[in-house]
Specification:
The protein is α+β, with helices and mostly antiparallel strands and about 270 residues long. The chain has 2 domains: about 110 residues, Phosphorylase Kinase, domain 1 (2-Layer Sandwich), CATH 3.30.200; about 150 residues, Transferase(Phosphotransferase) domain 1 (Transferase(Phosphotransferase), domain 1, Orthogonal Bundle), CATH 1.10.510. Helices cover about 40% and strands about 20% of the residues. The chain has 9 helices and 11 strands. The protein has a 6-stranded antiparallel sheet with strand order 1-5-6-4-3-2, with helices on both faces. β2 and β3 form a beta hairpin. α6 packs parallel to α8 and α7 crosses α9. It is globular, with a radius of gyration of 20 Å. The N and C termini lie far apart (about 55 Å). The relative contact order is 0.11.
Amino acid sequence: MELYIRGDIEQAWGDSDPFQEVEKLRGEVYRNKEGRTTLQTQINGKSFFVKVHRGIGWKEIFKNLVQFRLPIVGASNEFAAAEKLASLGVDTLTTAAFGKKGCNPATQLSFIVTDDLSNTISLEDYCANWKNKPPGFVHKKLLIELLAHVSHVMHGAGINHRDYYICHFLLEKESLVDLSAPKCYLIDLHRAQLRNKTPQRWAVKDIAGLYFSAMDAGLTKRDCLRFMRIYQAGLSPSVKQKEFWLAVNQKAMALYQKDHGRPSPCEKWWQ
């Protein structure tokens, strides 16, 4: 069994079994399927997000493997990824409690409780009207450089997200007061994988997902080149890098076509 209980949560739960306390929590449910429940709740008057994994069974595990998908069997990856990213200086989820018991991946019980990032707006919503009403040059540049830096640090540390879209970056509203120092929190880490080195195909998947999700935000070719420069900082130019960006572009274009039923507005830049 593994347990991490922060002081404020420990004070609220006392000597009670943390797994039982988590099951008692009530609030707004955002997801309740495939063995995972996600809800927003209150503990001692403070808002938290809770994910409880109750085991998905061998049938679901084998179904995912047959479909060449890695099954999500618990909260461990999210906890480990959040701790690792925070140690690297990346703004992300702050864990208030984590628990795991059981070795059988089909029946393992686990949970993670994180602070509610309440005073934020998703980057997807924030950028929704950029195509019609572009932001200031400096502000847009800073946001692009921030996402490129986070991507560079994350992949450089052997972490890949697997759900890497701009909707999973939460922009702190207070950081928008003067627009000179935007602050974004990277969330939804339950699919994250941690290794010594990020395999290229997973890095391609992440960056393609990020690019695809930002295509309707009025991106320019210069915006993309700026991201590329920051992301590959410290890496010497090579044929492999060219292959990497071509793979990113191809995958992003395919995602856009599949999701929207039409070619990406960015496609001509790469012909």
